[in-house]
């Protein structure tokens, strides 16, 4: 429980920026993350609109012995929920946003809690794009600071490698710029170290030179999974690094707002992007297209439309999930996956996804940060809708069941951005990098003021 001095300090935050305390009318709305299944009850929610406000809140909180959890959208809030937030000021960065583009330098400056959809909208008129993930309303910060897996990934690597510079409000409230040449240790650590090093108030990102991409989805009824899943796995073994795809076995409830090809159906969907000319891309995808999908939307589209290809939910939803990283999948692995989610099963999931890794995603880069690559062949990600606490318990068990069934093929490592529960964070990093990251954190935040969803 918060002590009386804390209560005084919390009340004092009201002088610094928009603040919601328990009992305030706006507290519940302000504390609610994008993932509506997560119940986070911080001691206060601060919504700064300037960097100066961020600094003053962090300084005041630290001086009062409180801690600070930066959160942009709450897409990744699930792991935070498992900690006590009684002495934590949730710093909601949704009020501190903006993008400026330098097309000649191919760099965008992205402020605080800006969403990917706003960045892509700003850079697209210049014929540029960026290594965004599958959802338009994920924030750049939480995604790139945790590595970031995009459909550009197998050609261009994890998104954290695109960071050129960061402005960070560190634990004493001061503003620090970190680049390869300035505060190089912090620059290394923050590129993979998530919210453990400070509140990131601006990121300079190197952009990608694509005005359009060859992208889309292939869709089959789930009855075809016994053909499609092994064919896709076989195809991924030799697919060039120009192509990054995901395979999902998905179940949609019957809902009038869904198109008929989705509503009430169990499906297999392969989607992604191929960074090649049309004829080469068609050649790459030919083995999958030969499986006669019911729907084939692959074709050349404006790069900005890649944000819609994965059909992620357009707004907040309650969801629970589980994840592991898999190595090569043999016949037995495919059979185990189909046993869990193939025809005739009732997995109780919205989807079970295999996201293709490899290519540049798996290659360490000399000038990269704490996460410059993610080893492994596939990221397994299982998600269930969780509109009630009971559904959350059942959904977690269902997601865990698939992850457990695939454990024979899993690796120790994890993808931070896909990790929904509290885990030993050393699993995200190579051994030496883990030790170095903890040293940098200890130097910059010895009192552990910062609270990340995945704590070091
Ligand atoms: C529908 C959906 C689709 C997704 N698709 C992908 C995908 O394709 N690829 C992929 O890699 N991931 C994907 N993710 C996962 C997503 O990238 C992570 O949940 C990511 O952490 C979200 O970042 P956020 O800032 O929006 O979320 P938040 O929950 O706000 O942030 C997560 C953590 O990042 C840190 N953080 C956030 N903002 C800041 C900041 N300004 N300063 C310091 N630390 C900060 C904090 O530690 C915070 O707890 C997806 C998630 C969902 C729900």
From TrEMBL:
Cofactor(s) required, per the database record: FAD
Record keywords, A-Z: FAD, Flavoprotein, Oxidoreductase
Protein name: FAD-linked oxidase
Family: Belongs to the oxygen-dependent FAD-linked oxidoreductase family.
Pfam families, A to Z: FAD_binding_4
Superkingdom, taxonomy of origin: Bacteria
Segment forming the signal sequence: none
Gene3D superfamilies (alphabetical): 3.30.465.10, 3.40.462.20, Uridine Diphospho-n-acetylenolpyruvylglucosamine Reductase, domain 2
Species annotation: Nocardioides gansuensis
FAD-binding PCMH-type domain location: 38-210
An example molecular function term from Gene Ontology annotations: oxidoreductase activity
